[in-house]
Design brief:
Length: about 700
């Protein structure tokens, strides 16, 4: 074995007559410019070196390659491009073998597809997830993959972005060989030697014939296009992927590559790509809360929930699904039976859908117990309180927890709005108290706001982040205020929507404008889903302290007074004559709105969809800025992730503050100032927004400040 010269990101080592090229760019061997240069140079030197009979590509560390370096997107491209490198690999006159351990994703799989033979180790995961970043495989993937595995399977991989395991990759003929080994180098060398001894030569994926049956392939492309019309509303890159695969079918390889390049660059330039890449990095940044850097999480095995209603049951299921043991406490036997029933219902639903069997349910519920006795929480590592939204009720529960829980147990509240400092101060161990704000349904929604009160210990915060990891939630650190990050901002833009409704827009128009923007539901649909009674109770509670000069729209109160709480009562803003899934516009609601306008002395005017959006987003962005300004959210990206994972904000727009950057902060500020002319009390520009505009910068600049 002798060492050859190489650029540092690609190590080049001769093993007998096999040149091993090791991608070495931790943590995932992304194909940054140094790696691309290194690969190109190494392939050239292998071609010129008579001692080399074959080339083996492997990755250093855990992974083969995580794809293009996502951080380079949007920056000035540096040669060589990945397509050029990939072409070089495929054109190598000496056989090239890729031995894949860990992941081969995106450009990483495209590199492997350009190799002449592919070996996957057990545990390998392969995929083309570019669509999740608003892109398409831009280094020949859209042309090589269909030729290798057919249009249908290729479209499935590229449109879903899913990872396939090594076995499925073999079944798809995406790889040629599996190795039950954990050393890619050894397995790859053995395979390459075998290929050399059997005189296997160069075999280019571009020459593969899986697209042979043209009419069938075309049918499959059309089917994918039809499905897309229903599924990926508003997204650019899935359509581009289909067009690229069509080009693979219709055009010679080189022309297909050109079409792929054109479509790739179009996607690369799109705001959707910028939004999705922002979301990718933001999801990783939210994990890096200051406390997680300085403290170790406490061990969590035994979890308890107090309250088995909507949230308590959902949280219990989420913890059970993560393999934890869960005890539920309720206030009386009837409520306890209902709580247990709420948990069982979730698993029965899965059985009905064929996604679980009775044995699976029994095995999960063996880790679940329900009790009326707080003493049963003595060994709990973490207790999550989810009783009624009432300070006295919560403090009474915490008093019991303080009495029975072992030292070091984490005591959490799922409160939506209440002051967690006041809860913490009511017990003898405030350092153990934290907010864990799950979203409904708690076993499905990804967001977990980790609400950090003044006296909490750093290791309790770290424990909350570790819990989120175990539960597969997306955690966002939030400070204490009324509504934390999400509900505080929601309260403001909901008011903006109510103002528009009273001024002349119907709730149906407003919902439509927001669905067209990319939300799965508009705010009035959401209100009907969540149930109007909850907001009504909050409004009544706050009535005494409300600023009497502030505008207050009473339409929601008029609906609630009639018992119209939304889906659960068969009517709210919409009529649900045929059950929760049937929503129709309700003329009686429109009449109530008319009457309320008259009562308030308002002459209704028309609103265009773009004005609706402008006002709604300005309210959301402005309060988002306040939340960052006050340190409730650490950075703008924390607001973005809260809205993407808790409030249905379209991911491809990157979150409200990313959207604000794209829309232009000076324009947001101008909109707010324009609206303030009619209602200066409601429309007060956030000091942070004003400051950013004055400095000529954007929210994103704060995401990178240390
Ligand atoms: N480029 C740059 N950085 C990347 C990266 C990439 N392709 N993939 C991961 N990283 C970074 C992450 O941002 C993270 O950085 P920090 O530690 O600073 O936060 C670090 O690598 C580790 O990543 P994860 O925390 O996600 O680690 P993991 O072990 O949980 O997952 C992974 C590893 C499965 C590779 C996951 O990171 C992943 O899915 N990465 C994205 C893969 C991808 O989408 N590739 C396609 C790129 S687009 C492309 O290739 C286009 C083309 O065709 C030309
Ligand atoms: P819910 O009314 O469905 O359930 C509350 C449960 O607590 C009931 O089963 C009740 O019997 C039980 N309970 C009341 N007092 C108790 C006590 N002293 N000891 C034991 N159990 C007691 O309410 P929901 O919706 O589950 O809300 C619970 C908490 O979660 C509230 O603080 C709410 O603000 C918060 N939350 C609610 C969300 C939602 O969408 N419903 C979302 C996020 C948080």
């Amino acid at each position: 074995m002798s060492r050859e010269t190489a650029l540092p990101s690609v190590e080049s080592t001769l093993h007998g007559n096999i040149l091993v090229l090791t991608l070495n760019n931790p943590p995932v061997n992304a194909l940054g410019v140094e790696v691309r240069r290194g690969l190109l140079a190494a392939i050239d030197s292998a071609t010129d070196n008579p001692a080399v009979a074959a080339i083996l590509l492997v990755g250093a560390g855990r992974h083969f390659c995580g794809g293009a370096d996502i951080r380079e997107f949007g920056k000035t491209p540096q040669a060589p491009t990945l397509p050029a490198v990939v072409k070089h690999i495929e054109d190598s006159p000496k056989p090239v073998v890729a031995a894949i351990q860990g992941v081969a994703l995106g450009g990483g799989l495209e590199v492997a597809l350009a190799a002449h033979y592919r070996l996957a180790l057990d545990g390998a995961r392969l995929g083309l997830p570019e669509v999740l970043l608003g892109l398409l495989p831009g280094a020949g993937g859209t042309q090589r993959l269909p030729r290798l595995i057919g249009a249908k399977a290729a479209l499935d991989l590229m449109l879903s972005g899913r990872h396939v395991n090594a076995r499925e990759a073999l079944e798809l003929q995406l790889v040629d060989r599996l190795a039950d080994a954990d050393d890619a180098l050894a397995a790859g060398l053995a395979y390459t030697r075998e290929l050399l001894s059997s005189q296997a030569g160069v075999r280019r994926t571009r020459d593969a014939r899986a697209l042979g049956d043209q009419p069938l392939q075309r049918e499959q492309i059309n089917a994918a296009r039809e499905q897309l019309a229903h599924k990926s509303k508003g997204l650019l890159s899935p359509h581009s992927i289909i067009r690229a695969v069509e080009a693979a079918l219709d055009q010679p390889f080189e022309q297909g590559l050109q079409e792929e390049r054109r479509l790739f660059l179009e996607c690369l330039d799109s705001p959707q790509r910028a939004g999705l890449v922002h979301a990718f990095f933001a999801e990783r940044e939210v994990l890096k809360a200051p406390e997680t850097r300085i403290a170790q999480p406490r061990p969590i095995e035994q979890v308890a929930v107090v309250g088995g209603g909507t949230m308590g049951a959902g949280i219990a299921v989420s913890a059970l699904d993560a393999g934890l043991r869960v005890t539920m406490i309720e206030r009386d036997q009837q409520a306890l039976d209902r709580g247990r029933g709420n948990v069982e219902k979730v698993y029965d639903g899965l059985i009905e859908k064929g996604r679980l069997d009775a044995a699976g349910k029994a095995a999960t519920l063996a880790r679940f117990s329900a009790s009326l006795d707080y003493q049963d929480l003595a060994q709990a590592d973490l207790v999550i309180e989810a009783v009624f939204e009432d300070m006295a009720a919560k403090q009474a529960v915490f008093k019991e927890l303080d009495r029975v829980c072992k030292p070091g147990a984490v005591l959490a509240s799922n409160t939506s709005y209440l002051d967690i400092n006041a809860i913490a101060d009511s017990v003898s161990r405030p350092a153990d108290v934290i907010g864990l704000h799950f979203f409904s349904p708690a076993n499905i929604m990804k967001l977990l706001e980790i609400v950090v009160p003044a006296k909490v210990a750093a290791d309790v915060v770290a424990t909350a982040f570790e819990l989120a990891r175990k539960l597969r939630k997306v955690p966002v650190r939030a400070g204490v205020c009324d509504g934390f990050i999400g509900n505080r901002i929601l309260a403001v833009y909901r008011q903006a929507a109510d103002h528009m409704m009273e001024d002349g827009a119907s709730p149906y128009q407003i919902d439509q404008a927001l669905r067209d923007f990319g939300f799965p539901m508009g705010p009035f649909q959401v209100a009907d889903l969540a149930g109007g009674d909850i907001g009504w109770a909050t409004r009544k509670r706050k009535a005494a302290t409300r600023d009497p000069a502030a505008r207050y729209v009473q339409i929601a109160d008029r609906l609630c007074e009639r018992g119209w709480f939304g889906q659960k009562t068969g009517r709210g803003y919409y009529l649900y004559a045929q059950g929760p899934r049937s929503a129709s516009q309700d003329p009686e609601v429109l009449a109530i709105i008319e009457a309320e306008r008259a009562r308030a002395g308002i002459t209704p005017r028309t609103f265009s969809p773009s004005e609706i959006l402008r006002r709604y987003m300005a309210a959301m962005i402005n309060e988002g800025a306040n939340v960052v300004h006050e340190g409730i959210a650490l950075r703008p990206l924390d607001v973005d992730i809260t809205f993407i994972h808790g409030y249905g904000f379209p991911r491809y727009r990157g979150g409200p503050l990313k959207y604000a950057d794209q829309y232009g902060l000076p324009q947001v500020l101008a909109d707010i100032r324009e609206f303030a002319e009619e209602d200066p009390r409601f429309w007060k520009p956030s000091p942070l927004l004003v400051e950013l505009v004055d400095r000529g910068t954007d929210f994103d600049s704060l995401n990178h400040a240390d």
